[in-house]
């Protein structure tokens, strides 16, 4: 698109050319340009605004003027080539009438008064324009002055902000240093607290072990005094039996005195009692911690791990007591046909079991314990691990529980349930318990009792939160069933023998 300046320049240079051919070529080019602009304006007329359409029209008028100037130049050159008289008729008949019609104007409708009024209005508008210009200049000066003052204020504010930023950076650095120091102190205090808890737990274990040692010493002293009394009694009998008459009297009353002599189980009851209590403490300090570390590799929740271990110990005592009753029934049945002697059949059965504890089929009890744990609603949904992993703890607990049934009275663990009222005489709180909570959330280790007396305290965790949510959510699981997983079934079948070892008459 050519602007009016480019068109005027083109018209100026075209007047300098004296060849009509070149002028005609310029006219041709300008005509084509005019045609293109007309077509473009016709296409875009509805799209363009009023100002844009007026600009298009002015450009076309300027282009038309350029074409007319080129044509007049060609007319001038052509007329000059014809001389003084050639072409005069054509000019008279065609050009002059056309010029007359083009430059003829109608009579103006504006009167002299109207013209004077327009001139006054124009002067008034010029005066207002000058006044507005002066006021505008004054306002611009005021705005420049205000802008300068604002810039000065902005620079002062920037300087103040820079100072505040420096102070803020310094404060941040000091705060970061203090925070690092506080974090180090907190981590150190946490480490000291953890060490203190561990030391407290060690001291509690030592205290419980000390109580067990004192009880063992007392039992050993009682047993020693009992054996000393038996020794003195036997020694007196031996000194009195030098004569044949005394020997005959001893032979006659032998049967009556044999009924008063204790069996091996009764003689070793005190020592076995102390040994089994010590072994129970060893399970807590040894096998329990090993099983807890092993389960913690696969289960992150410490509560779930401790629940699994507690349930395993409780199920082991149940399985061992059931196995002891069955073992004792088979022993009584076997000995009843051949039994004779001063001791009763019950004492003979217990004495035989004490002498042959290795005949206890512990593998069957272990499999029964694992089967019971697989259907326990507190730990079997979902089955986090295979409970065969803690088979060593279950095996040792079954052995200890089985041997405890041979004592008179037998040792057992007390009944425990989640949500029961905490009893300080039966339990001690774990280090992570809430010491003001009145209810037991879950148990870590059972309480060992003899009859109704507490021998060794258990361990429990007390919380103020609800204790029933866990059991309900697990037992009401709609996804899992009570059937065993394939891995557990294979593990159980691999460990279970083809037929349980039963007490045969050949062993007796």
UniProtKB/TrEMBL annotation:
<feature type="signal peptide">
    <location>
        <begin position="1"/>
        <end position="23"/>
    </location>
</feature>
<dbReference type="GO" id="GO:0008289">
    <property type="term" value="F:lipid binding"/>
</dbReference>
<keyword id="KW-0472">Membrane</keyword>
<dbReference type="Pfam" id="PF16026">
    <property type="entry name" value="MIEAP"/>
</dbReference>
<keyword id="KW-0732">Signal</keyword>
<dbReference type="InterPro" id="IPR026169">
    <property type="entry name" value="MIEAP"/>
</dbReference>
<keyword id="KW-0175">Coiled coil</keyword>
<comment type="similarity">
    <text>Belongs to the MIEAP family.</text>
</comment>
<dbReference type="GO" id="GO:0035694">
    <property type="term" value="P:mitochondrial protein catabolic process"/>
</dbReference>
<dbReference type="GO" id="GO:0048545">
    <property type="term" value="P:response to steroid hormone"/>
</dbReference>
<dbReference type="GO" id="GO:0005741">
    <property type="term" value="C:mitochondrial outer membrane"/>
</dbReference>
<dbReference type="GO" id="GO:0035695">
    <property type="term" value="P:mitophagy by internal vacuole formation"/>
</dbReference>
<keyword id="KW-0446">Lipid-binding</keyword>
<dbReference type="InterPro" id="IPR031981">
    <property type="entry name" value="MIEAP_C"/>
</dbReference>
<feature type="region of interest" description="Disordered">
    <location>
        <begin position="237"/>
        <end position="270"/>
    </location>
</feature>
<keyword id="KW-1000">Mitochondrion outer membrane</keyword>
<keyword id="KW-0496">Mitochondrion</keyword>
<feature type="coiled-coil region">
    <location>
        <begin position="154"/>
        <end position="230"/>
    </location>
</feature>
<feature type="compositionally biased region" description="Low complexity">
    <location>
        <begin position="243"/>
        <end position="256"/>
    </location>
</feature>
<dbReference type="GO" id="GO:0005759">
    <property type="term" value="C:mitochondrial matrix"/>
</dbReference>
<protein>
    <recommendedName>
        <fullName>Mitochondria-eating protein</fullName>
    </recommendedName>
</protein>
<keyword id="KW-0963">Cytoplasm</keyword>
<feature type="domain" description="Mitochondria-eating protein C-terminal">
    <location>
        <begin position="272"/>
        <end position="462"/>
    </location>
</feature>
């Amino acid at each position: 698109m050519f602007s009016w300046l480019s068109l005027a320049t083109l018209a100026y240079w075209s007047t300098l050319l004296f060849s009509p051919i070149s002028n005609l070529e310029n006219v041709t080019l300008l005509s084509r340009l005019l045609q293109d602009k007309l077509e473009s304006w016709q296409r875009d007329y509805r799209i363009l605004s009023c100002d844009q359409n007026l600009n298009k029209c002015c450009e076309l008028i300027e282009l038309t003027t350029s074409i007319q100037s080129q044509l007049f130049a060609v007319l001038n050159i052509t007329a000059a080539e014809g001389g003084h008289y050639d072409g005069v008729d054509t000019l008279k008949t065609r050009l002059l009438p056309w010029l007359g019609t083009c430059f003829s104007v109608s009579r103006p409708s504006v009167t002299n008064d109207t013209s004077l009024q327009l001139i006054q209005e124009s002067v008034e508008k010029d005066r207002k324009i000058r006044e507005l210009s002066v006021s505008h200049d004054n306002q611009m000066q005021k705005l420049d002055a205000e802008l300068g003052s604002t810039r000065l204020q902005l620079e002062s504010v920037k300087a103040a902000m820079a100072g505040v930023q420096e102070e803020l950076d310094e404060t941040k650095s000091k705060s970061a240093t203090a925070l690092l120091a506080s974090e180090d102190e907190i981590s150190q205090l946490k480490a000291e607290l953890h060490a203190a808890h561990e030391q407290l737990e060690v001291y509690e274990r030592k205290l419980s072990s000390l109580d067990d040692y004192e009880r063992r010493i007392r039992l050993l002293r009682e047993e020693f005094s009992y054996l000393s009394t038996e020794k003195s009694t036997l020694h007196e009998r031996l000194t009195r039996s030098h004569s044949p008459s005394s020997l005959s009297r001893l032979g006659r009353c032998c049967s009556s005195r044999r009924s008063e002599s204790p069996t091996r189980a009764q003689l070793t009851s005190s020592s076995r009692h102390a040994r089994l209590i010590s072994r129970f403490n060893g399970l807590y300090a040894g096998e329990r911690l090993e099983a807890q570390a092993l389960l913690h590799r696969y289960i992150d929740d410490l509560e779930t791990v401790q629940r699994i271990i507690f349930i395993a110990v409780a199920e082991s005592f149940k399985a061992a007591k059931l196995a002891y009753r069955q073992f004792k029934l088979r022993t009584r049945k076997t000995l009843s046909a051949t039994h004779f002697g001063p001791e009763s059949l019950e004492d003979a059965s217990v004495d035989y079991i004490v002498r042959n504890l290795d005949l206890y089929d512990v593998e069957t009890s272990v499999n029964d314990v694992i089967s019971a744990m697989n259907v326990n609603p507190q730990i079997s949904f979902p089955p986090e691990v295979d409970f065969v992993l803690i088979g060593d703890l279950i095996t040792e607990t079954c052995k200890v529980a089985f041997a405890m049934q041979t004592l008179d009275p037998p040792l057992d663990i007390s009944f425990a349930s989640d949500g029961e009222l905490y009893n300080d005489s039966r339990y001690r709180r774990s280090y992570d318990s809430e010491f003001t909570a009145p209810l037991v959330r879950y148990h870590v280790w059972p309480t060992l009792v003899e009859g109704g007396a507490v021998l060794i305290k258990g361990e429990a965790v007390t919380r103020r939160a609800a204790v029933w949510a866990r059991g309900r959510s697990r037992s009401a699981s709609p996804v899992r069933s009570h059937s065993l997983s394939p891995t557990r079934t294979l593990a159980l079948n691999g460990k279970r023998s083809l037929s349980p070892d039963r007490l045969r008459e050949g062993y007796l």
